[in-house]
C-alpha cells in the first residue's frame, strides 16, 4: 500500500464549505491509487470557538505555568473536535473514516508537556485500520507519553505530526495544505507581488521556516529531510501544483536569493567594558546568560563591547541576572531580524553590501548584521520591517 499523508491547517478545516475542498483532496488521492492518511489542525484561528488560542484563553497564566500536563489536555481538544468533524464530512460522501488521537495513531513522546518531542512512532494501529479500508483522520499537534498522558508538540506542531507519520509510513509524499499556493519568495501578506517557489531544498526551507516564515514548521522539515520523504506545500482551495521540497531543490535556478523572511520581538543587548570595569563577571557574561536558558543570537564580540540579541520573552529574566551580578547594559527593544536566504550566495561578493545600500537608501538603520554561507541577517527596528522586506524583495527582483 502506498500512503499519501495529507495535512490540513486551521483555516482549511474552519468552515463546512472549506471542509468540502478537503474532501476533494482526499478523494483525489484515492483516485490516484494512494491510501490517504489525513492529519488535521484545530478549526480556525484565534477568536474562533475551537481554535487552540481560544481554548488556552480559558486558563490563567499561573495555572498554565504550573499545570502543563492539564494545559496539554485542554489544548488537544481543538484537534480532537476537528478530526471527528472531518471524519463526518468524509462519511457524508461515502468514505470510511476513523478519527484517532495522536497517541492512538502511534505518536509516542517524552513528557515535556506543551513542547514534547516524539520518541517513537508505532504504526501498528495505522497499518491495521488502513488495511481494513479506513481513512485515518489523525489529530495533529499531539502525542502521548508511555504512561498514556496526552502531550502537545509545540506551536505549528501539526506539521510535525504530518512529517512523523509520513516518515514512519514511508509515504510517497507529505502534503501540507494551507491558505497560500505554496512557499513564496516572502510572506504574501507582507509582499504583494511575492512569487511562488516551484522546487526548493529541505535546507533552504528549514532556514526560511526557522527564521520566521510561518508556512511550515522547521521541525517538520527536519524530520522529513532525515526520512528523505518529499514535502509538498499546497493550497486547499485550488489545484495549483504548489511547492515541492526535496534534497536537491531547484538545480536549474540561477537565482542567488531564494527568499526573505523575518522574526519580530528581538531585543538588542549591548554591554560596554568601560561601564563594567572591575566586574569579574564581564568576561564570562555570555556563558552566564546561556546557562540560564536564554538563547543568544547575532553575537558580536569586540575588545570593548559585547552585543547580542534575545527574544523579548526573555527580557525580565536577563534583567534579573544582570542586576544580581551588577552588570550595566543598554537595550534596544522592538527590533526585527530580517533574513535574506539563498544557498547560491556563498562566494558571491557584494550581497551584503547590496542589502545595506538598499536599506540605507530608504533611511532604514541597520543595527547589526551577520552572515553564513546561505543567509544574511540584518537587525532593524520593527516598525520598518514590512518596508524593508518589500525593498529587499525588489532589490533582488524576486
Ligand atoms: P496553517 O494554519 O495552514 O498551518 P499557517 O498560518 O501556519 O497556516 O501558514 C500559512 C501562512 O504562512 C500564510 O497565510 C502566510 O501568510 C504565511 N507565510 C509566511 N511566510 C511565507 C512564505 N514565504 N510563503 C508562504 N506563506 C508564508
Ligand atoms: Mg501552520
From TrEMBL:
Query: Which SUPFAM superfamilies does its entry note?
Result: ACT-like (SSF55021), Carbamate kinase-like (SSF53633)
Occurrences of domain CASTOR ACT (ranges): 333-394
Specify one Pfam family: ACT_7
What GO terms in the biological process aspect are recorded for it? diaminopimelate biosynthetic process; homoserine biosynthetic process; lysine biosynthetic process via diaminopimelate
Is ATP-binding a UniProt keyword of this protein? Answer: yes
Which top EC class applies here? transferase
> Which EC number(s) are documented for this chain?
2.7.2.4
A GO MF annotation of the entry reads:
ATP binding
Q: Where is the Aspartate/glutamate/uridylate kinase domain?
A: 2-235
Q: One GO cellular component from the entry?
A: cytosol
Which key words are in the record?
Amino-acid biosynthesis, ATP-binding, Diaminopimelate biosynthesis, Kinase, Lysine biosynthesis, Nucleotide-binding, Transferase
Q: What family does the Swiss-Prot or TrEMBL record give for this protein?
A: Belongs to the aspartokinase family.
Q: Please give the function described in this protein's UniProt entry.
A: Catalyzes the phosphorylation of the beta-carboxyl group of aspartic acid with ATP to yield 4-phospho-L-aspartate, which is involved in the branched biosynthetic pathway leading to the biosynthesis of amino acids threonine, isoleucine and methionine.
Entry-linked PANTHER family: ASPARTATE KINASE, ASPARTOKINASE
Extract the NCBIfam families matched here. asp_kinases, PRK08210.1
Query: What name does this protein carry?
Result: Aspartokinase
Source organism (scientific name)? Clostridium paridis
The gene from which this protein is expressed is dapG
Amino acid at each position: 500500500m502506498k500512503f499519501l499523508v495529507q495535512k490540513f491547517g486551521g483555516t482549511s478545516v474552519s468552515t463546512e464549505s472549506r471542509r468540502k475542498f478537503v474532501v476533494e483532496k482526499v478523494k483525489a488521492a484515492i483516485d490516484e491509487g494512494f491510501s490517504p492518511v489525513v492529519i488535521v489542525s484545530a478549526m480556525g484561528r484565534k477568536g474562533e470557538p475551537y481554535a487552540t488560542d481560544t481554548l488556552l484563553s480559558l486558563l490563567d497564566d499561573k495555572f498554565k505555568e504550573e499545570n502543563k500536563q492539564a494545559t496539554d489536555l485542554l489544548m488537544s481538544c481543538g484537534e480532537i473536535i476537528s478530526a471527528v468533524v472531518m471524519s463526518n464530512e468524509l462519511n457524508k460522501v461515502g468514505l470510511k473514516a476513523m478519527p484517532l488521537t495522536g497517541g492512538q495513531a502511534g505518536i509516542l513522546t517524552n513528557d515535556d508537556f506543551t513542547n514534547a518531542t516524539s520518541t517513537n512512532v508505532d504504526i501498528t494501529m495505522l497499518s491495521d485500520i488502513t488495511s481494513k479500508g479506513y481513512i485515518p483522520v489523525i489529530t495533529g499537534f499531539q502525542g502521548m507519553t508511555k504512561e498514556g498522558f496526552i502531550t502537545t508538540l509545540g506551536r505549528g506542531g501539526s506539521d510535525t505530526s504530518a512529517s512523523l507519520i509520513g516518515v514512519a509510513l514511508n509515504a510517497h509524499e507529505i502534503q501540507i495544505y494551507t491558505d497560500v499556493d505554496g512557499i513564496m519568495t516572502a510572506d504574501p501578506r507582507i509582499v504583494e507581488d511575492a512569487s511562488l517557489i516551484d522546487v526548493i531544498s529541505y535546507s533552504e526551507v528549514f532556514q526560511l521556516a526557522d527564521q520566521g516564515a510561518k508556512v511550515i514548521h522547521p521541525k517538520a522539515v527536519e524530520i522529513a529531510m532525515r526520512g528523505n520523504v518529499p514535502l509538498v506545500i499546497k493550497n486547499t482551495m485550488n489545484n495549483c501544483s504548489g511547492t515541492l521540497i526535496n534534497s536537491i531543490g531547484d538545480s536549474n535556478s540561477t537565482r542567488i536569493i531564494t527568499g526573505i523572511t523575518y522574526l519580530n520581538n528581538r531585543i538588542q543587548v549591548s554591554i560596554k567594558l568601560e561601564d563594567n570595569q572591575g566586574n569579574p563577571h564581564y568576561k564570562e557574561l555570555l556563558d552566564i546568560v546561556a546557562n540560564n536558558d536564554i538563547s543568544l543570537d547575532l553575537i558580536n564580540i569586540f575588545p570593548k563591547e559585547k552585543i547580542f540579541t534575545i527574544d523579548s520573552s526573555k527580557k525580565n529574566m536577563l534583567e534579573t541576572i544582570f542586576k544580581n551580578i551588577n552588570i550595566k547594559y543598554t537595550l534596544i527593544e522592538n527590533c526585527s531580524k530580517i533574513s535574506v536566504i539563498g544557498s547560491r550566495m556563498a562566494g558571491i561578493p557584494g550581497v551584503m553590501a547590496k542589502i545595506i545600500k538598499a536599506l540605507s537608501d530608504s533611511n532604514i538603520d541597520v543595527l547589526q548584521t551577520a552572515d553564513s554561507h546561505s543567509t544574511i541577517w540584518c537587525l532593524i527596528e520593527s516598525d520598518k520591517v514590512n518596508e524593508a522586506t518589500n525593498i529587499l524583495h525588489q532589490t533582488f527582483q524576486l
